[in-house]
Amino acid sequence: EKAGFDHFMLKEIHEQPKAYRDTMRGRVSDDGQSVTLGEIGMSAEQIKGIRKVQIVACGTAYHAGLVGKTIIERLARIPVETDVASEYRYRSPIITPDTLVIVVSQSGETADTLAALREAQRNGARVLAITNVVGSSVAREADHVLITWAGPEIAVASTKAYTSQLIAFYLFGIYLAQTLGTVEQAAVTELLAAMNELPEQVESVLEQSAVLKQVAESIAKHKNLFFIGRGVDYAVAQEGSLKLKEISYIHSEAYAAGELKHGTLALIEDGIPVIALVTQEELYEKTLSNIKEVKARGAHVLGIANAGSEVEVSKSVDELFAIPKTLPLLSPAISVIPLQLISYYASLAVGNDVDKPRNLAKSVTVE
Ligand code: M6R
């Protein structure tokens, strides 16, 4: 059932290229010019009436929602808030009938996410569910459903569900933007063409697992580390940090790179590992200067950067892992892969039960 892999998590990491293809299948027109999401049953009129989007989810699905915010705001120019479901419910969120609430849940059974969905509907908002389980509670109760076709995810640590949620957000963001006329056709064509390349690009990262295993083994000797990044790199940093904590029990924090000097820099000491995501060209310089700040205090920095930028980035880091270059908005769908593999191998290195980390359940049906 693990198809020759040692753990479900590793199998599921390797299933991501397929999950990307399956989640895109039938949702892009044959000529590659548009996204077709008639299946969600949202009329053009309904889309034009959306004034605000609230994305609500837990854990890894919340991290996908952080990227979702950037995608929808950039493409459709609608303001988006992303909330953790257990916070959203109790903060008296301003939910109006022209709010679209998007709940994101792999299982479709997470108690707080389901309660948030009901709260949104009570207030007259429509709810779109992005879920991996057809017929789940969230899928049944939502007004609109966008299924991620990742297939069953068994490992407690979510991998292919997260990346398929990203794909779902790209598709939905483009769909909104095309309906609203907020993007040029050329930009859509370029995005869709780049999305088609993602599965192969992910494959090429998977082929470099041996390097990431070495990185993980040296990280596993530490008690603390940091992930830093800006923009969508910061969102991915948060996901990388959660994954590492969840299965290796090594403490880490994800920080917006520009925020370090407002307190956290005090924790940087000799030899501490820092994983820096540097995929957003327009932010390179800023992030590189943050990397210099941590290096000056003795941090050992692993940069995760686009192929082609090695020369520029390698001057500032101790080690560099290059990932295939894609459009800046799409980079989370590639940059998270090395972080998943680092977590996996770190968990193995410390001798944990990778698929069943202590204290955690796959589906959290209590509040
Ligand atoms: O099934 P859901 O997507 O609603 O689950 C949400 C979280 O419990 C889940 O993503 C959790 O954070 C994962 N174990 C993280 O790897």
Automatic annotation (TrEMBL):
Localization, UniProt: Cytoplasm
Cellular component, GO annotation: cytosol
EC number: 2.6.1.16
Coiled coil regions, renumbered to chain: none
Active-site residue numbers: K362
Superkingdom, natural source: Bacteria
Keywords: Aminotransferase, Cytoplasm, Glutamine amidotransferase, Repeat, Transferase
Biological process according to GO: carbohydrate metabolic process; fructose 6-phosphate metabolic process; protein N-linked glycosylation; UDP-N-acetylglucosamine metabolic process
GO molecular function: carbohydrate derivative binding; glutamine-fructose-6-phosphate transaminase (isomerizing) activity
Domain SIS: 43-182, 215-357
Catalytic reaction annotation: D-fructose 6-phosphate + L-glutamine = D-glucosamine 6-phosphate + L-glutamate
Assembly: Homodimer.
Function statement: Catalyzes the first step in hexosamine metabolism, converting fructose-6P into glucosamine-6P using glutamine as a nitrogen source.
Name of the protein this chain belongs to: Glutamine--fructose-6-phosphate aminotransferase [isomerizing]
Span covered, complete protein: 244 to 610 of 610
